[in-house]
């Protein structure tokens, strides 16, 4: 089954607490999004991916779900979500929710009840409990490493956490079943099967309300001790088959790339994770020191040049090796790491970067605010997401959307101290309103690129992408009919492209075609239609 709409999707990631606050409590909400749908339609996006918006104590920004079937009251009601789905559809926009499949909050009723049981649930435990698990020193662990936490209730022993301690792992069973760890359930035991059924129920609940599918959080964390994710992928293939039978138009997209275990693939696309080497080799600027690794890599999109395109190209080719039409989502940035503009990056650089992201053969995902070049705010204390583990500092990429020059940048009419995260204090911070009235702005560039993409099928995700110069300036053909040439650096340069003779300029900045020579000013790009 092909879910053809995904190939033409332009995703916009909304971190709900930071987008638009409609009721002046300092936190973004669904009504705020409804009020901004016209803006998103104007911009040209057609799919919204919401970070989790379910009931939660928000110890991990909502990735700690307390009730999968209820919109968090601070965001609104289930009816608001339905209203949003309908209003978005009227504007040609679909809604993806974030499905936190591998763990809940410690405040979920399932966990509370199980933590008070003195013996296993006869229907099967939803969580993983052990009296004497193999404890080890976890103080140096990065978040996301499963480990054991003492039971908070009458239940003796420990529970397994998935990410932070407050995120107990749901029991989807184990691949290896050593005799001395009898508490490990096989994947077909009642508890794991019960959780699989619940996953289907949760998906059906929201699909019946009109959502278009899910981004699946930590999709590969489900079955434990599962080398190569073999059993986890069996599970997701089962989910995909169920979706195909009941909701054939729905899509599921994993947080990262799907492991290749032969056909059929379970997910409708891969996601080149912002922290992944493939994405980092292009844009990495972890100068904020959010995470310790790959910090010193020179990315390809760097003012001084000096980066390589090959690592990305190899990852791209690998993702398409067994399925040439495989869709890959690629984000400008996301809620976990950084923003597209960060460190010493300047606004001028953004144009060439966005031109790449919106014309390469991916399904692009624009992190809210990247369309105006919002920055990562360094040194911002974390609010909803590092309290339990100081290795992360994610507040800097989560500050509220900057709409206009009203108080709080138009995000909220609450008193500034009520905002759950502060607005970028820079007096020159970019805003939607200012950029809307400036045809040369980053915002208009994004809009122009998306409009071109919409009217030019060769520039969308489906058609081929063939690199003809994997160096500076970068040049590639889309659908063998369109040429994109990009200069990510601060130096002027030129490239001779024989195919370009007689080509027609569709969109560009700071570039020109003279016979078969594309001349590019710093950070320039050009998109050309080749003569037939
Ligand atoms: C994913 C999310 C991240 C969250 C984690 C645990 O990595 O993107 O925000 O903290 O999963 O659910
Ligand atoms: Ca609000």
Helices, by number, come to: 12
| Ligands (ions, cofactors included) | alpha-D-glucopyranose, calcium ion
Average pLDDT works out at 93
Q: How would you name the oligomeric state of the polypeptide chains in this document?
A: single chain
Report what the structure shows.
The chain has 532 residues and is α/β, with parallel strands linked by helices. The chain has three domains: 5-100 and 269-452, TIM Barrel; 103-169, Oligo-1,6-glucosidase, domain 2 (Alpha-Beta Complex), CATH 3.90.400.10; 464-529, Golgi alpha-mannosidase II (Immunoglobulin-like, Sandwich), CATH 2.60.40. The protein has twelve helices and 19 strands. The strands form four sheets. The chain has an eight-stranded parallel sheet. Strands 14, 15, 16, 17, 18 and 19 form a six-stranded antiparallel sheet that branches. α10 (347-359) links the parallel β12 and β13 (363-367). α8 packs antiparallel against α9 (310-320) and α10 packs parallel to α12 (442-455). The longest helix is centred in the middle third of the chain and has 18 residues, at 190-207. The two termini are 33 Å apart. The mean pLDDT is 93. The structure holds alpha-D-glucopyranose and calcium ion. Calcium ion is lined by residues 21-23, 25, 27, 29. Calcium ion binds next to loops.
